[in-house]
Amino acid sequence: MKVAYYPGCVAQESGKELDLATRAVAPRLGIELQDFPSFSCCGSGFIDESNYALNTALNARNLAIAEKAGLATVMTVCSTCQGMLKLAKRNLAENKVLRARADKVLAQIGMEYRGTVEPKHMLQLIVEDLGGAEKLRPLVKRPLKGLKVGAFYGCHILRPHDTMNFEDPEDPHSFEDVIRALGAEPVDYRGRVMCCGFPIQFVRPKTGQKLAGKQILDAKRNGANAMATPCPLCHISLDTYQKEAGREVGDDLQMPVFHFPQLVGLALGMDPIALGVKRHLVDTSSALEKLGTVGVPA
Amino acid sequence: MVRVPIEVFRGGAGTPNRFDKFELELEEHTPILTALLKIRDEIDPTLAARYSCRQAICGSCAVRVNGKSRLACVTQVGPELAKRGKLRIEPMGNQPVLRDLVVDQKPFWDRYHRIEPYLIPDPAHPMPVGKENPMSPEQVAQFQETPRCIACASCFSACPALDSDPDFLGPMALAKLFRFVVDPRDGAFHQRLETVQNQSLWLCLRCNLCVEACPKDVRPAERIVDLKWMANQEIGKREPGSKHSIGFAENIQEGGLLNERRLAMDSLGLIGTLGQLPKAITMMRHGRSIKKHPPIQGREQLDVIYNAMSGREDLQHRPMSGEGGVRGKAPTPPPAAASPPPATATTTAAAKPRPSGETKEAHP
User: Fold this and answer.
1) Peptide bond before A7: cis, by omega within 30 degrees of 0?
2) Cα B132 to Cα B338: distance, rounded to the nearest angstrom
3) B182-212 per-residue burial string, b: 16 or more CB within 10 A, e: under 16
4) Neighbours of B63 (CB within 10 A)
5) Nearest CA to B202 among A210, A207, A55, A193?
6) A137 Cα to chain B: minimum distance (Å)
7) Mean per-residue pLDDT for A209-223?
8) Which of A14, A97, A156 sits opposite B288 (nearest CB)?
9) Which fold has domain A2-122?
10) pLDDT digit string (tens) for B167-185?
């Protein structure tokens, strides 16, 4: 299945390991990625807070780029990119004023948005277009036995449900289905659908870090020895700022946190280093040792 | 009929916190409130729960059902049972438990009162006395969601920002504030946005849990986004939150993708950015540099889009919204009939509205 690959800003710079893992895993799942160096940022839930119409038009441009190439799907690997592209699609479909403004400005740059393209997160693509989580089972070369994984969804892949059209926005199961198919054990905990605190990292860092700490601690108390997330912004909160998060909740969390495609890649037998785990700030070797792979020093 | 295992939180009022387990024979469509009352009437008369109308109007009976904030009267046992195999009923979040499922709603109402939830007339445009103060259908449509709120506090219960930062006003109060900010009869537009800038508007996480919890589809998180961009348009860069969102938009125009270094400088300032240095060094040790992306292809197209979309916006992303600025056109006074409006509506009286707000007169 050929898709327009929308990596998002973070996966192209500070979270490059997500891009590495996606490019390694996608072909093995039958996903052909087409790159578009003209894609801009999705707005990340910040541009629309300063100019709503601008954000909608920027994403109309992004979607129009994929449409022009004749593709039906834009594949995201970030819950926030997914949320913003879907929000733009909803606005362009439902709001005539916004649509007219976007159409007008796109015409000025020789582009056209028709609404034929659908943004889908890689997780959603597996569930809806590649036959579901169970189709991963035959591909697994290194079952993730011994890993108890706390799935951490990232708000924007789920909510609002009538914009995202994915699954139960407060009690989802697609990620857990994938974790099971990869041979690991999913951990049930309330924090999996909560917020990682990223949006207020710049506004009130301690509150943001406290939120991250709470969710990691929730996963840990429910038996998780690793976490995984389909959102690189959540990964920044849960991994990059885990030390600070731990301070806020009074616990030395020490929780390895994988990106979604990294977890899939590990089960497909790929080299953890090639999947970029060394770039994490929290040492992942406690989890990797359980898989019988060579421990990777922090 | 199905067997329904129910765990109910018990505690408060000096009793130890625990979960009592019950099993009931119920129809799948039985409301959870009916199940709770059955427990109280037939098994344990000491169970405390709050309720009144039983039809999603009074907003009294909200509880948490398997972690989700819901009105007990309109939430059926079947779907949650099918999903989780049991029902776990807890009191609402972010409010102290008085007894069992009854919480003290003071934190919720305190925040509601802080936003001054009534019309504050504009001294320059006194309310017509003895006459209606009409709005166009387009103006009413701008706040069509918020009057549906029944103050059940489900959103308040579900909000993770409130749980972590007591400064936050919470979803309901901010949605209500939005309603007054866009009301063309209200004269405190600027002052309200000023106040909310300082009162933690920026602590909303946009997790949208409140949108899912709300039984009336008020969609508080989306109203908060409206408030944020109205505050940004009206007041500009000041609080860290507005610096961040306005700076982010400027950042993307530059190269098309996020320049993470510049973002830190714009949002945190020099001192704040220096504070991030140890983290940046740690990241570099893990091979994670924060370089500037090369500009995207067609970067100059963004200038065209930015120019076309610049300037003060109206509420054009909202369905059915009219034209004429953030709040629509000023209200048209009713056609002058026999006598013109009396000139006695003094500005001093008009500046002190009755707390009931929805008054046809500026003062009694």
Assistant:
1) no
2) 15
3) bbbbbbbbeebbeebbebbbbbbbbbbbbbb
4) 28
5) A207
6) 24
7) 98
8) A14
9) Glutathione S-transferase Yfyf (Class Pi); Chain A, domain 2 (1.20.1050)
10) 899 999 999 999 998 888 8
Query: Taking a C-beta distance cutoff of 8 angstroms, is the pair A157, A124 a contact?
Result: yes
| Chain A CB contacts of B165 below 8 Å | 204, 207, 210
Which one, of A124, A6, A123, A140, lies nearest residue A62 by Cα?
A6
Chain B hits for A101, CB-CB cut-off 8 Å, are 308-309, 316
**CA angle (A229, B253, B270) in 5-degree steps:** 75
Burial of B235 (0-12, 13-18, 19+ CB in 10 A): middle
pLDDT tens digit sequence for B102-128: 999 999 999 999 999 999 988 888 888
- Chain A residues near residue B68 by CB distance under 8 angstroms: 170-171
Q: What is the ipTM of this complex?
A: 0.96
Residue type, B239: E
Q: Are A139 and A262 in contact (CB under 8 A)?
A: no
User: B201 near B241, Cβ under 8 Å?
Assistant: yes
Q: Could you give phi then psi for residue A41, rounded to 5 degrees?
A: -60, 150
Beta strands A73-76 and A2-6: pairing type? Answer: parallel
pLDDT digits over A245-278, tens only? 999 999 999 999 999 999 999 999 999 999 999 9
CB contact under 8 A, B308 and A101: yes
pLDDT tens per residue, range A55-101:
999 999 999 999 999 999 999 999 999 999 999 999 999 888 889 99
Residue with tokens 């292809």: B297
Is the separation of the CB atoms in B10 and B19 below 8 Å?
yes
Q: Which two tokens mark B212?
A: 């899912």
Helices (H), chain B: 32-42, 77-84, 106-114, 137-141, 154-158, 160-164, 171-181, 189-198, 209-213, 220-235, 240-255, 260-275, 277-285, 299-308, 347-350
Where along chain A do its domains lie?
Answer: 2-122, 133-290
**For position A202, what pLDDT does the model report?**
85
Secondary structure (3-state) at B77: helix
Among the listed residues A228, A169, A234, A230, the one whose alpha carbon sits nearest the alpha carbon of residue A199: A234
What's the count of helices (H) and strands (E) in chain B, helices before strands? 15, 7
* Cα-based torsion angle of the residue sequence B141, B114, B200, A44 in order, rounded to the nearest 10 degrees: -20
DSSP B218-282: --HHHHHHHHHHHHHHHH-S-SHHHHHHHHHHHHHHHHSS--HHHHHHHHHHHHHHHHTHHHHHH
Which helix (H) or strand (E) element contains residue B89? strand B87-90
The tokens for B13 are 């009022």
CB distance B100 to B91 below 8 Å: yes
Q: Cα separations (Å) of B351 from A163, A178, B125, B126, B129? A: 41, 60, 11, 9, 14
Quote the CA–CA distance of B257 and B250 in Å, as a whole number.
11
CATH class of A133-290: alpha beta
Q: How many CB pairs under 8 A join A and B?
A: 210
Pairing, β A2-6 against β A185-186 = unpaired
Question: Which one of B259, B279, B305 would you mutate to disrupt binding with A, by most A Cβ within 10 Å of its Cβ?
Answer: B305
pLDDT band at B136 (very low <50, low <70, confident <90, very high): confident
Give the list of residues 6+ apart from residue B282 with CB closer than 8 angstroms, or none.
Answer: A281
